[in-house]
Design brief:
Length: 252
């Protein structure tokens, strides 16, 4: 038996990086995991690996109609939700003056509006379960802002603020809201967004980050996505009445 037997969890960005590791770990611990991501082929591939307790649900979290439809299906099938993990995010280095409209809006929709849409849709199901957990994934780049990542850093800072406000609204109904400020991590499945980085901007960013010490301070060494998954299991298995509002997880 696992520590999450009988729990229903939804994970965004479930086909890559830490989202993939979280989905796998939750299934291993007995949960049923609704995997939310855009790539249907990758969702089906992961479903084939994890089995029937991993439910593939193609979803564009930046589209409110897609989110509403996905959580309607969750409600119809399960009638509740115990955990929502807002893990999906996209970024690529670019100076502000060269940002395209698409580069701005894709990051805003995925990194900030997506968690707003999913939290809104999940709350009735979390309440139906008698309470539960929302975990938002932020980045330690909000603590040491990287040049050429202005939109990514800004959307993650906005997500942290959203979590603080949401926590005050839903705590009386038994819903805990936690923020995981995640340091650099390594694991399978990264880079599945189909968003290619501009080689010139990437070269410039890596030089600036190296010369300015950002890579040394924030990404000096790495942790694994499996260790990130461990943190999420720990958060959702705390006794009711205990909360960990902000957890900064990094390697050393």
């Amino acid at each position: 038996m696992g520590v999450l037997d009988g729990k229903i969890a939804a994970v965004t960005g479930a086909t890559s990086g830490s989202g993939r590791a979280i989905a796998r770990r939750f299934v291993d611990e007995g949960a049923t995991v609704i995997m939310l991501a855009r790539g249907e082929a990758r969702l089906e591939e992961l479903h084939a690996q994890l089995g029937d307790r991993a439910v593939a649900q193609p979803t564009d979290i930046g589209d409110p109609d897609s989110v509403r439809a996905a959580f309607t299906r969750v409600g119809e099938r399960f009638g509740k939700l115990d955990v929502l993990i807002n893990n999906a995010a996209v970024y690529r280095p670019c100076p502000v003056e060269h940002l395209s409209d698409d580069e701005i809006m894709t990051q805003v929709r995925t990194n900030f509006l997506g968690p707003v849409y999913t939290s809104r849709a999940a709350l009735p199901l979390l309440k139906a379960a008698g309470g539960g957990d929302i975990i938002n994934t932020s980045s330690e780049s909000t603590l040491d802002p990287f040049p050429m990542l202005s939109i990514y850093v800004s959307t993650k800072a906005a997500l942290e603020a959203f979590g603080h406000v949401l926590r005050t609204e839903v705590e009386p109904e038994g819903v805990r809201v936690s923020t995981v400020i995640q340091g650099a991590s390594l694991g399978e499945g990264g880079g599945s967004t189909g968003w290619e980085w501009d080689p010139q901007h990437t070269e410039t960013a890596l030089r600036i980050w190296g010369e300015g010490g950002w890579l040394t301070r924030v990404a000096k060494s790495t942790q694994t996505v499996e260790q990130i998954a461990d943190v999420h299991v720990y958060l959702v298995t705390r006794p009711r009445g205990q909360k960990l509002e902000v957890v900064h997880v990094r390697s050393y």
